[in-house]
Amino acid sequence: MLEPDRIEPNHPEPHNSKPDHTDPDLPEPDYSVTRPPGLWTWLKWLLLGWSSWSLTFGKSSLTLQHKKRKQEIGYLSIKEFSKLSNKKLVLKLTSGEAIVLPCPRNTVQLADVNKTFSMSKQQPYIDAIRSLLENITLPTASPYDFNIYVSNRRFQMWLNSLPNKNEMDAALDLLERLELLDQLDSAQLKPQFQKLETWRKYRTIMQGGHQGRTEHNHSFIAKELRLKQKFFDNIEHQPLTDEQRRAAIEMEDCNLLVAAAGSGKTSAVVGKVGYALETGFCRPEEILVLAFNRKAAKELQDRLTSQLGATAEDVSVSTFHKFGLDTIGKTQSRKPSAADWTGNLGESSASNSKWEALIEELLSVEASFAQHYWAMRLCFSYDMRPQHEFKSKNDYELYLESAGAKTRDTEHWGVSTIQGEWVRSLQELAIANWLYLHKVNYQYEAPYPFAAATEGHRQYTPDFYYPDAGIYHEHFALDAAGNPPSYFETDYRQGVEWKREQHRSRGTTMIETHSEMFDRGAIFNHLRSELERHGIDCSGQRSRGEIEAALGEQTITPIHQLIQEFLRHWKSSRLTMLDLEAKASQLKGYAKLRAKLFLGIMESVRRAYEGKLRDRGEVDFEDMISQAAECLNENLLRHSFKLVLIDEFQDISQNRARLVKALLAQNPDCTLFAVGDDWQSIYRFAGSDINIMTGFEEEFGFTATNRLTQTFRSNKGITDLATGFISANPAQMRKDVTTSDKTTASVVNVVYYTQRDVTSQFIRQQLGEIAANGKPASVFILGRYNHQKPEDLGNWRKQFKEHLDIEFSTVHKVKGREADYVFVVGMEVGRSGFPCKRNDDSLLNLVRPVPERFEFAEERRLFYVALTRARQKVFLLAPRSYPSSFVKEVIALGRNGQSTAQAIVSENCIDAEGKMSPVSGVPAPPCPKCGAMLVERESRYGLFYGCSNYPKCKGTRRITKNDSKQ
Description:
By secondary structure, the chain is α/β, with parallel strands linked by helices. The protein is built from 30 helices and 33 strands. The chain has a seven-stranded mixed beta sheet. Strands 9-8-19-20-7-21 form a six-stranded parallel beta sheet, sandwiched between helices. Strand 22, helix 26 (716-726) and strand 23 form a beta-alpha-beta unit. Helix 8 (265-278) packs across helix 9, helix 12 (367-379) crosses helix 21 and helix 26 packs antiparallel against helix 29. The model is unreliable at 1-40, 46-51, 55-62 and 71-120 (pLDDT under 50).
C-alpha cells in the first residue's frame, strides 16, 4: 500500500511563501500548507503540470521545482518514486513491485486542481490502469457468497488467492483521488473496471478481518439452528441441546468441545457426524472417528449406525492402534503382526517368559549390562527422597509404605535385604546390599560386646559390624549441618552423641555415614574410602549365580516393571538417548547417579527389544501409532478424510497427538473435532498428557472452543459439590455446570466406621432400603483398588436381584458409566488410601509428561469421576480415626454455611450392627507427633486422646473441658 504522507524526517520544511505566479498553463499549487504535500497531491501536480515542473533526484528524496521560477514546493521519499522519464512515471510500491503510468508532456490545463477535467484528457490514465487490470485475476466469489460456515483456514486461503493487494489499491485509489471512477459511464465500465468494483467489496471484507468472519458465522449458525431444528430434534432419542447443536454446526479448522460429566458427549459426536452428512460437508468415507479402546469404538459405531442408518456404515470408526496398524499395512508389502508379549508384566505367562528371556540374554552376553543391572536392582532399586523433605513422621512412614516397605512387627518399620535381614530404612537397605554385592563381610545390628544398657538406654546394637576389621558402622539421619529431621524424636541427637561416646569410652572404632551423603550422591564413594582405610577390601563382585541363589524364586520384580513401563513411555515420547542423558544431568546427588545407571540399562534393553520385534516381524502398541504417523508425514499413504473426530480427548498422549497432527498436515481441508473433559483425565500412568487438551490451540492450530455444561446425570447437590472440589485446581479448565434436578440436601453421605468389618453390614442395610422402594435401581460399589471388592458382593446380588443391579468396579474402569447410587469404599489415609500416596518412580519423569504442580491433581480428578457416577446419592465410607483428606474437603464444601438440614453433605457413624446415625460433636484434634487423628482411649489414669496410628506413633494428648464429646 502506498504511504501518501510519508516524508523523510530530516528534510527542512519547504518554502511556503507564494511566488508571483502568472503562467496560465500551470495548476496553482497550494502554498498554505505547513508540511510537504502528500503523494496524491504530487501526482496531480506531476501529471497535470509536467511541462512546467521538474523533478530533481537527491540521495534519499525527490524535489519538485518550478522550471522558470525555481520555486521548490516539497520533498518526497525515493522509496515512493523510483524512476522518472519523458514518457513514463514509475510508482514503486511498499511490496517492492511497481506500477507504470504514462506521463505525457502536453497535459490538461486547469484553473483549479480540484476541478474535474474531460474524459478525453483522462484516457491515457484510464488506458494505463486498464492495461494493469488485464493481467490481474480476481476470485469469482468471496467465502461469504456461499451458505457455509467460514473457517479460519478457508478465509485465509481466499485471502491468499487475491492478487497483489497494493496494485489493486493503487489503481483504485488513483481513480478515486482523481475523481475518475464515478464519472465512467456504463459503456466504458468494461470487465477490467468491474474488477475494481469487486475489489471494493473484497477490500471491505478484508478490512472486517476476523471480526467480520465471526459476525458472518454467528449469523450462519443462527440460521442453521432454525433450518435444521427438525433434524436436531430427531437425530437422537432426545432432542439435542442448544450447546450440542452449535458444536455440530461449527466447522472451524480445529474444534474442541469441553464436556462436563454426563453432559451427552456421545450425542454430540452423533450430532456432528449426522450434520456433516446431512449438509454434504463430507461423504461417509471421508469421516474418521477415533476412540481409545475397542469397547468405546464399538459403542460409537453401534450408536452411529442405530441413529443415522445405513449411511453411517461407511464411516470409519477405529481405535488409534487399529487405525495405525491398518495404515502401516497399506504402505508395506505385508501387514505386521501385533506383538502379544509386550503387555504389562504379570498379565500373562507368555509376556512374563519373553521378558525374562530378554533380561536373561542380556545378563549372559553383556558384562556391563550385568554390572549395572545388579547394582540397580540391589542398591538403587528404591526412589529415595531426602528424609528432611517430609513434614511429619507419619508422612515418612506413608512414603516407606508406598515404596513397598513392610513391617517386621508392630513396633518397627523395615525392609528385607538380599540376605533376609530386616533393616530400618531404605538407605540402610542400599548400604547392606552394596556390602553384599562387593563381598564385604558384615553383621547387621550385632550386639555390642560391652554392657551399655542404662535406665534411659537399652543394650546398644550398632547398625553394622565388620568382624574382619573389628570396626562398627552407624548410619545417622543427619543433614549437612548435623541435624536430624524435624519430625524425629527430640532425643535423637542425644542418641547420636551417646553412641559416639560409647565408642570413645570403650576404645572401639566406629565409622559414620549420614543421610546427606545419599542426597549428595557421595554415599558409596565415602563408604568405600572408609572401609579401605581400615583394611577392608571392597573390590570384590558377587557372581550372577550367587546373587540369583540369594534372591531365590523372585523373577518379576519392581525393577522389571519399571524397565518395561519406562520403555513404553520412552518410545511414545520420541526422545533420543542424548535427550534423556541431558535431562538426567540436571538431577542432583543420588537421583543423578541412579538415573545415569538406569539409562545405561535401558539403552541395552531397548536395543535388544527392538531387535526381537524386527526378527519376529512385529510391532508393539507404540509402534502402531508412531510408524503410522511417519507413513503420513512421508506421504507413503494419502488419506481422504475431511473430518476427524476424537472421543475422550483428555486421554490423548503425545504419540497419538503426533498421529492426529500428521492427518491434519497432509490434508489442508481436514477438520478436527475433539470432545473430552479435562476434569476426567486419569490416565497419566498410561501416557496421557492433560497439557495437550488444556493447550489445545497451541498444539493443533486455530480453534473454536465450545462447552457442554448441562449434565443429565447427577442432581444439583452432587454436581455443585463435585464442581467445587475439582475447581480447587486452578489449572483445570473452567466450567459452570448446571442440571435440571435441583435436589441438594444430604445427597453425599460421609459414613464413618471404627471397625472395617461393619461396613458390609452397613452396605447391605442400605441396599435393602433402596430395594424397599420397589423401583429398579443400579448401584456401583467403587474402590480405588481391585482388592477392595467386598466379599459379600455375590450374596447381595442374589438377595436383591429383583430390584437392584449391583456391581463392583475400580474408579478407573467405571469412567463413562453411571448408576443411581454409588458407594465409595476405602476413603482413608494409608497404603490403600484415596488419594493414593504411592508415588511413581521419579525416573519415569524423564520420559513422561511434566508432573502437575497441584498436589494430588490426578487423584482429585479420579475422585471427581467417582462422585459424578451417581444420579441420586453417594456414600463415602471412611475410618473415623484416619479419614481421607478428600473426605475432610468434601465436608467443608458440602456445608458451606448451610444448616445441617440443608447441607449437601451429611456426616454419619456406623454402630456395631451397621446402623447409621448422625455424627454429634466434632472430631478430636490431630496428633501432635504425626498429624493423624487422635481417638479417645482409656488407661488406668482415665480417658485421654491417643494417636490412631498407635503403635507406630505413640502421640497422646489430654482431654480438656473444651473438647467436645464424640
